[in-house]
Amino acid sequence: MKIAPSILSANFLNIQKDVKIVDQAGAEYLHIDIMDGHFVPNLSFGPAAVQALRPMTDMVLDCHLMVEQPDMYIQQFAQAGADVIGVHVEATPHIHRTLALIKENGCKAEVVVNPGTPISAIQELLPFVDAVLIMTVDPGFGGQKFIPEVVNKIRQLTKIRKKEQFWFEVEVDGGINDTTIKECASAGATIAVAGSFVFESEDPSKKVALLKELTKDE
Ligand SMILES: O=C(CO)[C@@H](O)[C@H](O)COP(=O)(O)O
User: Fold this and answer.
1) Which of 193, 198, 211 to mutate to test the pocket of ligand 1 (most atoms within 8 A of CB)?
2) pTM score > 0.90 for this model?
3) Binding positions for a divalent metal cation (predicted)?
4) Which of 5, 36, 93, 129 is deepest in the core (most CB within 10 A)?
5) Of 18, 23, 33, 36, which is the active-site residue?
6) What CATH number corresponds to the domain at position 130?
């Protein structure tokens, strides 16, 4: 399983140091939460933050857009250095167009589903995506409690993925720690985002190593 530390919980006064720590600890992805204060009740980063992070690491920059009208921002995030751009199925009536736009801009296209949204809502999109992000908390804040009922959706998606021989990544995000990551991994998740568990600890490097160790056989 790949580990994607979420910089929402990192130390913004010394972000370069935190990025280096998780990079050296073996994290493959760096998860960047983009919040607009409309789609979710919180504000975070814009394309300038992604541009500043890009020269700091070769980790995959995984931009999770929690924004309304995502099409307005795709090109800016792509030009800033995003590798993966995730857009919520709940955020636009034209999600297929948005996913195509992400690919046209040279990035991997990811569709994101909230805890209250069924897998059936994205089923027709599965042939077009590089990744599906299943939210295991309601988006907007770090440090929330994992919603265990969502594990069933990871299983459902994994079943479809195997049956149809799709190769998209199955990413999980929210409340991931040394217990919940095991449930997600056994259900078929391939990437785990972890914010507070990693960065609000004494030793983020050890936490990344622990998450990798716990899921090394998945
Ligand atoms: O998308 C989000 C929150 O909306 C996440 O990426 C959080 O940043 C994860 O934080 P933890 O739940 O791991 O503390």
Assistant:
1) 193
2) yes
3) 31, 33, 64, 173
4) 5
5) 33
6) 3.20.20.70
